[in-house]
């Protein structure tokens, strides 16, 4: 299983005390999934949510914590239809979003989370993504 997590902090929605948690993006059974877990230090309320896809706020937390990863297409052996299908299947993109992502991937590379880019790379049998952070 491929996953990345970002630690979360914020006030409890019930009592206002500090709470901590985790936002997780993962690939499970070949699908992009997310998890959100919280625990309040005051009222001890815990919450746990999960789902398919990648909510923007979780994606943003993962990118802020771990940086972006880039997937480029240097081999023209991957056809446009396969690229569109990979982005639609992996990330749930619309046709227009998939076309834009495929164009970016062919030109300078498409950036996303490590989990997202590894899933797309796997669907296309490509090399793993490369970090865009300075070494």
How would you explain this protein's 3D organization?
The protein is an alpha+beta fold. Helix 2 (80-91) packs across helix 4. The strands form two sheets. It has a four-stranded antiparallel beta sheet. The radius of gyration is 17 Å and the shape is elongated. A hairpin with a 5-residue loop joins strand 3 and strand 4 (46-52). It has helices at 56-66, 80-91, 95-107, 114-124; strands spanning 2-11, 18-28, 31-40, 46-52, 69-71, 110-112, 130-131.
The average pLDDT score comes to 91
Q: For the report, how would you describe the main beta sheet?
A: 4 strands, antiparallel
By DSSP, the count of extended strands is 7
- Summed up, the helix count is 4
The helix fraction, in percent, is 25-40%
Share in β-strands: 25-35%
- C-alpha geometry: elongated
State the secondary-structure class: alpha+beta
Order of helices and strands: EEEEHEHHEHE
Radius of gyration: 17 Å
Q: Please, what is the oligomeric state?
A: single chain
Report the end-to-end length measured between terminal Cα atoms.
Answer: 25 Å
Which stretches of 5+ consecutive residues score pLDDT under 50? none
With strands numbered from the N-terminus, the spatial order across the biggest sheet is 1-2-3-4
């Amino acid at each position: 299983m491929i996953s990345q997590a970002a630690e979360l902090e914020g006030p409890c929605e019930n009592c206002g005390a500090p709470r901590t948690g985790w936002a997780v993006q993962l690939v499970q059974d070949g699908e992009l999934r997310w998890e959100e877990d919280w625990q309040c230090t005051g009222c001890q309320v815990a919450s746990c949510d999960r789902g398919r896809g990648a909510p923007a706020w979780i994606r943003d937390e993962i990118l802020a914590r771990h940086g972006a990863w880039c997937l480029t297409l240097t081999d023209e052996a991957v056809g446009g239809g396969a690229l569109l299908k990979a982005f639609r299947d992996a990330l749930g993109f619309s046709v227009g979003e998939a076309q834009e992502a495929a164009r970016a991937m062919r030109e300078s590379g498409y950036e996303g989370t490590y989990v997202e880019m590894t899933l797309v790379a796997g669907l296309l049998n490509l090399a793993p993504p490369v970090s865009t952070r300075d070494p």
